[in-house]
From TrEMBL:
It comes from the Bacteria. PROSITE patterns: FHA_DOMAIN. This is FHA domain-containing protein. SMART domains: FHA (SM00240). InterPro entries: Cell_Proc_Reg/RNA_Proc, FHA_dom, FhaA_N, FhaA_N_sf, SMAD_FHA_dom_sf. Residues 146-195 form the FHA domain. Keywords: Phosphoprotein. The keyword Secreted does not apply. It comes from Microbacterium album. The keyword Lyase does not apply.
Amino acid sequence: MGLLDSFEQGLERAVNRAFAKTFRSGIQPVEIASALRRELDTKAAVVTRDRILVPSNLTVRLSPADEERMRSLGGALINELHEMLQRHATDQGYSFAGPVRVSLRADSGVTTGTVAVDSSTAEGRIEWRAVVDVEGRRHPLSKARTVIGRGSDADITVSDPGTSRAHVEVLWDGERAMMRDLGSTNGSKLDGIPTKQSALRDGQTITIGRTSIVFRVVPLAEPGTGTTATRIFDARNGDLA
């Protein structure tokens, strides 16, 4: 069963049978879902090797008649659209720069059966920051070289007797990361495999002694900034107008 098939069935549970005849003459909820999904695909922007940014604010503009019909569904429609976008982003490996917001708006300039999608994102202001999660605390990697160990002069100090004073270092150039064992007594592991030096990917775990160090790349964006684009989706023929 396809994603949109599941989406449409979910809506059927939320819609009173009285609306069924009405939907035949105007926009269908599944067509709004298709337009939103296409908007993410069209606006996806590769920011780094491991990050593809997509708009997080999406406004669906409908003809007044279509908007009134969709509004009759209450919050069920927005909830379904929100969940659909989250699933699609996960399936495609997309990242949202902020909380996902979906809204519907009546627009007399939009004809019946047509969906206009306005999307915005902070893609021009996005910054990707590397961090490591150690012993329940998150540490930003603010320097190109971060030393981790039990010594007081390490950049990140761990209270683990099984680690060396300067055990491992993490290198970050703003786009790529690397881990390197600093000649420690007990060695280092990357995702459970003994490793002296290796490139780092988001979500990988470095283990020194009994301490786990999870490497992450997280987005930082200024809310309320960015660019806006409008695309028109014609539900009658499946094309962008």
